[in-house]
Amino acid sequence: MNVRDSVFVITGASSGIGAATARAAAARGARVVLAARREDRIRALADELGGAAVAVRCNVTDPQQVTALAEAALAAFGRIDVLVNNAGQGLQATIETIELDDFRSVLELNLVAPLALMQAVLPVMRRQGAGSIVNVSSGTTFADVPGTGGYVASKIALERLSAIARAELDGTGVTVSTIIPFATQTEFLGSIRAGRAEAEAMTAGATFDTPEQVATAILELVESGAPRVDLVPAAYGGSR
Prior knowledge:
The chain is α/β, with parallel strands linked by helices. It is 45% helix and 15% strand.
């Protein structure tokens, strides 16, 4: 799919990978719908991008707000070509100590919400006969690192959900792909559900990618329609 003139719906667009993807897509001639809970941030980004962008406050765990997001995208631009399911949250705790409420919340945001968003845009994409969905996973799925079980479980499940959705949509013109970033310079650690200190200690000294590097990979994935791309170094089992 061509990025130029496409309409992107991007969740978690208030910072990090989401904001970088919005800027990269707009720079390539796309129109973008910025979705996040922090309305002041996405409105500022929409102002920065001009008429190519609209901001829609959306808590992606609220089904009514997800429906309203899809409706707002159609009202603004008349179509939805690309969905980037980027909103997510970390969780750092051992299996014995994970608070079940924390686990449920992370599953709701990292797994259930992307499914709800796919369900919201797929009827539109089917009518158009074309569309691209990119689900953002995590390089933590490449290793069995103590303390990451809850978070990794949510992302592994998202990867399988993406792969099966891709198979189900074969022949419709709609592709579902997965991007697997490595450690990235975002606000992720600051918003982690639990275990922030432990997560910061675990990543101390790591070399972080920039959000712009991930955004570039996302746009390449939209254009290629490939099943998945990872930014994980070969030393950690990835393809880089």
